[in-house]
From TrEMBL:
This is Stage 0 sporulation protein A homolog. The gene is srrA. The modification 4-aspartylphosphate is found at D54. Keywords: DNA-binding, Phosphoprotein, Transcription, Transcription regulation, Two-component regulatory system. GO terms for cellular component: cytosol; protein-DNA complex.
Length: 227
């Protein structure tokens, strides 16, 4: 089995070289781009397992790349940027990013996040298929169907939906969901959870399945199959 192939996109060559060094040391195959236009071309021509994407890029910015990628791909995306404001993070997640790391950063932390994200995406045979009225979730293929219609979710959207669904009727705080779905090493805002819940509901549409994700005011969220 070939090692995962990762595209690193940043206009600072020293950062790209540093990230490449640490990723290749762990056995990953690494490709690079220094502007948004080149990145989009490479994404179209290659099948990457993960993207590490800077926001502030020449020609085409990272937000635009993320938006374009999400039109037809659920490849994991880690935003790598000097912009640490909450608004930027929320916007990145709304556009489909899976993780967010702010410069200056530890290369070892970035590699750890890459490994964690790819590990969560690896098929696990011991996970159960979940089948509810109007909603089908298969973790081995990461397939979601709503009323027999396939729905494309980002990796984190899928993980969040599956976690809630497999723990049906249990109420989880936002803090607990961050811990269980994003992991202990994630330092994002609690609004990250709200953003992903909002996106999940939008993708489930006006189906019965959308009503299964219930807000428990003042606490968090739960998955409840309404009869």
């Amino acid at each position: 089995m070939m090692e995962p192939k990762i595209l690193v996109v940043d206009d600072e060559k020293k950062i790209v070289d540093l990230v490449r060094l640490y990723l290749e040391k762990e056995g990953f195959r690494v490709d690079e781009a220094f502007d948004g236009q080149t990145a989009l071309k490479k994404i179209e021509e290659n099948d990457y397992n993960l993207l590490i994407l800077d926001l502030m890029l020449p020609e085409v910015d990272g937000w635009t790349i993320c938006r374009n990628v999400r039109k037809n791909s659920d490849v994991p995306i880690i935003m790598l940027t000097a912009r640490g404001e909450e608004f930027d993070k929320i916007l990145g997640f709304e556009l489909g990013a899976d993780d967010y790391i702010v410069k200056p950063f530890s290369p070892r932390e970035l590699v750890a996040r890459v490994k964690a994200l790819l590990r969560r995406l690896s098929p696990k045979e011991d996970k159960d298929v979940l089948d509810f009225p109007g909603l089908y979730i298969d973790p081995s293929s990461r397939l979601v169907k709503v009323d027999e219609r396939e729905v494309t979710l980002t990796p984190k959207e899928f993980d969040l939906l599956y976690f809630l669904a497999k723990n049906k009727d249990k109420v989880f705080t936002r803090e607990k969901l961050l811990e269980e779905v994003w992991g202990y090493d994630f330092y994002g805002s609690l609004r990250t959870v709200d953003t992903h819940i909002k996106q999940l509901r939008e993708k489930l549409g006006r189906s019965k399945a959308a009503s299964y994700i219930v807000t428990v005011w003042g606490v968090g969220y739960k998955f409840e199959v309404v009869k």
